[in-house]
Specification:
The complex is a heterodimer. Chain A is an all-alpha fold. Chain A is built from seven helices and no strands. The longest helix of chain A is centred in the C-terminal third of the chain and has 29 residues. By secondary structure, chain B is of the alpha+beta class. Among the domains of chain B are: 68 residues, ATPase, substrate binding domain, subdomain 4 (Actin, Chain A, domain 4, Alpha-Beta Complex), CATH 3.90.640; 115 residues, Substrate Binding Domain Of DNAk, Chain A, domain 1 (Sandwich), CATH 2.60.34; 90 residues, Substrate Binding Domain Of Dnak, Chain:A, Domain 2. Helices cover 36% and strands 25% of the residues of chain B. In chain B, strands 1, 2, 3, 4, 11 and 12 form a six-stranded mixed β-sheet that branches. In chain B, α2 packs across α3 and α11 packs antiparallel against α12. The chains are: A mainly alpha, B alpha+beta.
């Protein structure tokens, strides 16, 4: 066990996309029970700093493992297909077309109901992409193709945030 | 007589004596201190049997001051020097105070003390940190009298929605009051501990905490002793005081009068507060106050009060909605709602919360005491007085942290509601040849523009090795510790050179300010400082020696022969100096031993954690 172990090693789960959220939650709490700075509060500065390093590392791993998109990106990277979202922005034409349609629909949306309908479409597209990603990683073993799905998912996630923001605006 | 305890792996290395640790609720209106005695958390009363200490400090000429009820009662007579609700000024600048002209104080912005405001009193300019330290010192004294012993440490609670500057100011106040701070914990979390342990609850709970000056909402999940905060929100400038003001304004408007002088303003606030409190049980209260411009006379009904303050209650519910959204939960997912804070006694709050969640809130613990009780339970645990199966708090950062980038935009580094402790690294480079310094402006808040967020601090990184523009790769690490406090470190990746960092807090005190205030030594003026310092230095020395001996016994094999000899030399030096009557020499020798064993302590810790984690994994695979 080492601060440089992978998230999967640290959480003692197989390095695959499919994960049981309940297992991750339970393991996170078990690990924090051992390493949290509160457990070493009476033991001075050096112990506190060390506990903090471990505790920070465990939280980092948990955040990445529990979020399907981050987990997929991390797996791609571990398998030699880094996402490199900044330099790698080329996307298939039909995907870009759909993005543009969504943007227009969001701009034109007049009511909460319109936006909620759009939200449903976005959620469905996200679920489908995640499923393809899971199959590529856990069955086909094609990390490069999975990385392309991850890049698409990042676009979808950003758009979903904008949809949420619009909903919040209308809600108040 | 202290019982001998048997050391558990996670306990302090010197468990031969039970350590006295207290929980302190440093509130806007009043403050409390609590401790676990005979396994039960209880609030400690003063000599008159009161557990609530009014959070009011009155400065008198000639060095003297009154704290608590005497100061509260002097507010009308001496409003400028009787400082109430100082919590609202912690880590704040003058510009942050809404309508300062409505308050009776003479605000100033002291030179060279960051941007935090000061209050000019008959005893000189006082920082809110100093005023808070007076309250903390009074509570420390009360605890010491109760136990007839020094206290080893304290957990102090802060509103969950306090930002970094407000937390740091609270930590500074503890230092000024001579309190060893074990941890800052969030008030709603503390309340959840008191409730959770009391009711043996499991599931998702909402804690609605309306205090004198702050409002917090926290959503927590409780599972087998783990208190996991899922989301938190609130308003650090919304509380019972605002209900008083709203009622006072409403009454003035009804009567067509105006309050002019400081003492009239203070009298009006107090009368409005008394009226508010009476309306908790009465349906109608006869209000009467003589002002210079004429009388304010009115029969105030509960419905009047509710109307006058409806906007405030709505603000709290908006924050509740936002927290639920952040948690990704619906109202129905909440298994219980806990009311905390004296202001939740107002009937309109109880009914608003009941209606919002569709269930009656839990109120079986005293809303004034519950936070201090929870803090005491956590303090007892942090001091190492309980076994291994204690509770575990996993709290979050309430507001996002970011840095200023080109064009006054914020680049987010740590998102709100992220579990702490947490750290994020970001790489920067230089834009000029030979550049050796870099400035970073850290802000806190949810908005995209720097101008809309709260400035926390400016960090200057110095000592970057000179290179061509763009060649340096400076990794800056932002760390938020378990107290929710930010620290920044930086290293040039190519050369491995650690940058020096100067911090200029936007609304805080520097180490020099605090050292200076400590020298002025207001809180211990009546005691013999030198004698106290000597006793404290010896206690620290003994603690350090004991800890080192037990560490050597357990993990001495980690040390080489030379390192072991060095540690032995430092221990011998400390033992020799311990007999001297000079606190500074003893402290220096203790420091030297602490520094000399730091690497050893880190290695032990690493070994311990690895062993524990490995054990877990073997068990659970």
């Amino acid at each position: 066990m080492n601060l440089n172990d992978t998230d999967f090693e640290l959480f003692a789960v197989p390095a695959v996309f499919a994960q049981d959220r309940a297992v991750l939650d339970a393991r996170w709490k078990e690990l924090q029970r051992e390493a949290h700075p509160d457990r070493f509060a009476a033991q001075g500065g050096a112990a506190q700093r060390m506990a903090m390093q471990w505790s920070v590392r465990i939280n980092e791993a948990y955040r990445r493992l529990r979020d399907p998109l981050k987990r997929a990106a991390y797996l791609c990277e571990l398998r030699g297909a880094p996402i490199e979202a900044e330099s790698n922005t080329a996307m298939p034409t039909e995907f870009l077309m759909q993005q543009m349609e969504w943007r227009e629909a969001l701009d034109d949306a007049a009511s909460t109901a319109d936006i909620e309908r759009l939200q449903k479409d976005v959620d469905a597209a996200r679920a489908a992409a995640l499923q393809r990603c899971a199959a590529l990683l856990d069955e086909a073993g094609d990390a490069a193709a999975a990385a392309r799905e991850v890049r698409a998912l990042m676009f979808i996630a950003r758009f979903a945030e904008d949809v949420d923001a619009r909903l919040e605006q209308l809600g108040q | 007589m202290a019982l001998l305890q048997i050391s558990e792996p996670h306990q302090s290395p010197d468990p031969h004596q039970r350590r006295i640790a207290v929980g302190i609720d440093l509130g806007t209106t009043h403050s409390l201190v609590a401790a676990v005695r005979n396994g039960v958390a209880e609030c400690l009363p003063d000599e008159q049997g009161q557990v609530l200490l009014p959070s009011v400090v009155r400065y008198l000429s000639q060095q003297g001051r009154a704290i608590g009820a005497a100061a509260r009662d002097a507010q009308t007579q001496d409003p400028e020097n009787s400082i109430a609700s100082v919590k609202r000024f912690m880590g704040r600048g003058l510009a942050d105070i809404a309508q300062p002209e409505r308050l009776p104080y003479r605000f100033v912005t002291p030179e060279g003390q960051g941007g935090m405001l000061g209050i000019d009193t008959v005893a000189g300019v006082k920082s809110p940190v100093e005023v808070s330290a007076e309250i903390l010192a009074a509570l420390r004294q009360r605890a010491e009298d109760s136990f007839d012993s020094d206290i080893d440490g304290a957990v102090i609670t802060v509103p969950a929605y306090f930002d970094d500057a407000q937390r740091q100011a609270t930590k500074d106040a503890a230092r000024l009051a001579g309190i060893e701070l074990l941890r800052l914990i969030n008030e709603p979390t503390a309340a959840a501990i008191a409730y959770g342990l009391d009711n043996g609850s499991e599931g998702v709970y909402a804690v609605y905490d309306l205090g004198g000056g702050t409002f917090d909402i926290s959503i927590l999940r409780l599972t087998r002793g783990v208190f996991e905060v899922i989301a938190t929100g609130g308003d650090s400038a919304l509380g019972g005081d605002d209900y008083d003001t709203a009622l006072a304004d409403w009454l003035l408007a009804q009567a067509g009068r105006d309050a002019v002088s400081s003492s009239e303003k203070a009298a009006l606030r107090q009368a409005a507060r008394a009226c508010k409190e009476a309306l908790t049980t009465a349906d109608s209260v006869a209000f009467h106050l003589e002002l210079a411009t004429g009388p304010v006379q009115f029969d105030v009904t509960r419905a009047d009060f509710e109307t006058a303050t409806a906007a405030l209650t709505a603000r709290t519910l908006a924050a509740v909605r936002r927290a639920l959204r952040d948690a990704g939960l619906a109202r129905d997912d909440i298994q219980g709602v806990v009311l905390v804070g004296g202001s939740t006694r107002m009937p309109q709050i109880r009914s608003a919360v009941h209606e919002f969640f569709g269930r009656a809130p839990l109120t079986n613990l005293d809303p004034d005491q519950v936070v201090a009780l929870g803090a005491a339970i956590q303090a007892n645990q942090l001091a190492g007085n309980t076994g291994d199966d204690g509770l575990l708090l996993l709290d979050v950062i309430p507001l996002s942290l970011g840095i200023e980038t080109m064009g006054g935009l914020v680049e987010r580094i740590v998102s709100r509601n992220e579990t702490i402790p947490t750290a994020k690294a970001q790489d920067f480079t230089t834009y000029q040849d030979g550049q050796t310094a870099l400035a970073l402006h850290v802000v806190q808040g949810e908005r995209d523009l720097v101008a809309d967020c709260r400035s926390l601090a400016r960090f200057e990184l110095r000592g970057i090795p000179p290179m061509a523009a763009g060649a340096a790769r400076i990794r800056v690490t932002f760390t938020v510790d378990a107290d929710g406090l930010l620290s920044v470190s930086a290293r040039e990746q190519g050369s491995g050179v650690e940058a020096r960092i100067d911090v200029k807090p936007s609304y805080g005190l520097s180490d020099d300010d605090i050292a200076c205030m400590l020298r002025d030594s207001f809180s211990t003026a009546s005691q013999d400082m030198a004698a106290r310092a000597l006793v404290e230095a010896r206690v620290d020395a003994d603690r350090m020696l004991l800890a080192t001996r037990s560490a050597l016994a357990a993990d001495g094999d980690l040390l080489t022969v030379e390192s072991r000899a060095a540690v032995d030399r430092l221990m011998a030096a400390l033992e020799a100096s311990r007999g001297l009557d000079d606190a500074a020499t003893i402290e220096a020798a203790t420091q030297a031993l602490a520094k000399g064993t730091e690497a050893f302590a880190a290695e032990r810790m690493n070994r311990g954690i690895q062993r524990a984690l490995a054990g877990r994994n073997v068990q659970s695979v």
